[in-house]
Amino acid sequence: MRFVYQSALAVAYLCVAAAAAICNGKIKPKVMIITFFNSEGEIYLTKSNTTGALDFRAKQHRVPYASPEFPYLHCTADADACLMTTGEAEIQATATTMALLADPALDLRETYWVLTGIGGGAPDQVTLGAVTLARFTVQVGMSYEMDAREAPPAFNTGYVPQGTESPGAVWGSVYNSEVFEVNGALRDTLTAMVDPARVADSAAAAAYRANYAEVPAFAPGAAPPAVHHCDSVTSDTWFTGAMLAETHKRRVDLWTNGTGTYCTTAQEDGAVLGALVRGALESRVDFERVAIVRTVSDFDRPYPGQSVMDNLINGTVGYPIAIENVWVAGESIARGIIGAWNETFKSGVPAQNYVGDVWGVLGGAPDFGPGRVSGGEPVVLPGAKAQQQMVKSAKHRTRRSRFQK
Ligand SMILES: *[C@@H]1O[C@H](CO)[C@@H](O)[C@H](O)[C@H]1NC(C)=O
Ligand SMILES: *[C@@H]1O[C@H](CO)[C@@H](O)[C@H](O)[C@H]1NC(C)=O
Ligand SMILES: *[C@@H]1O[C@H](CO)[C@@H](O)[C@H](O)[C@H]1NC(C)=O
Ligand SMILES: *[C@@H]1O[C@H](CO)[C@@H](O)[C@H](O)[C@H]1NC(C)=O
């Protein structure tokens, strides 16, 4: 059972002695590690005693409205790095991120948000244990869905973009959570902090991935784990099998205007980013300071001759190394950001690409989607603080992308 009542009761909503600094002033993390369920968060705590590693056990702070399963923010003694676990899937991920944004004890204006979790992997891009850093996350579950057995004969899937009449249509009705794009320059800088030699592998993973070797397109799936640039999908439904994987890969292509690369499946990334866009509109966070890291615990489809159920049930041999690599990647990135704070990260890594949502509410010109709502300027909400810096960088991005075309 993952639900631990005792820890909540034992520490209650009180400042423990060790957390005095946290109670008396704002917690102002340079890095906020976001994880989604118990094992992803606990690896940071159990590895905290590793020589040279960030110790996330030093302080804890109870976040109002956080998941009852994960009520605490865990931080290093100086609170430079903090760790939160949201609870799984979209509702919990959004609710916990909003809880962080709403917590008056936190100053998040300069914080880097590093999402680190495990996910399924596409064998034409990645293998078990792989570390991926994304530029896009695509909410593939946002769809009309009919059971494929009842779909028109011409349809190759039961998923159809909402507001359209064909699986191959691009945009119909837009809810504005379908796609989020994050800072590519930041991603590149953070990638350099992850030492490929430290990416964990295992004999069990090696034996399992060898089954993919006979398909030439799955060569990346049969190779040892590495560090990759490719994109995540967000869906509450844990889908599996080649047909749904191909359907969602096509959706990533369509919704990122051909610039995204489908490689990992998970249930939260877009949900966190949707809340962070709102935080940016209120000047609570800087949306240029967001990174999406996913490590691969299992394949999104079976190997030749294997059943979908066999891969789903028996294919999680990559789970231990994926959890280990969540920490390998996330802790390295956190240390890297803190270590180069003054010279690089305090002032920010300017985005060269569009960052934000489908509608462009943070300003700039989306390089995907049906068009921005605000003419390249950020939306200014009634009564919200003017966002001088964001307006400036949004203009910069708009100008850049016009020159690039
Ligand atoms: C670190 O903690 C883990 C679990 O709490 C323990 O098994 C391990 O021996 C500890 N390692 C060191 C170096 O203290
Ligand atoms: C999982 O593997 C075991 C052992 O090989 C096998 O008996 C079982 O049928 C597999 N499960 C599925 C759903 O294929
Ligand atoms: C970074 O800048 C702060 C404020 O100027 C200073 O106190 C601190 O010592 C600097 N840190 C490093 C590692 O240079
Ligand atoms: C999508 O890509 C096409 C072809 O490269 C390009 O003409 C179009 O402007 C792009 N759309 C957006 C919104 O950038």
Automatic annotation (TrEMBL):
Signal peptide, first to last residue: 1-19
InterPro entries (alphabetical): Nucleoside_phosphorylase_sf, Pur_nuclsid_perm
One Pfam family hit: NUP
Alphabetical UniProt keywords: Signal, Transport
Domain of life of the native organism: Eukaryota
Task performed by this protein: Nucleoside permease that transports adenosine and guanosine.
Family according to the record: Belongs to the NUP family.
Identification of the protein by name: Purine nucleoside permease
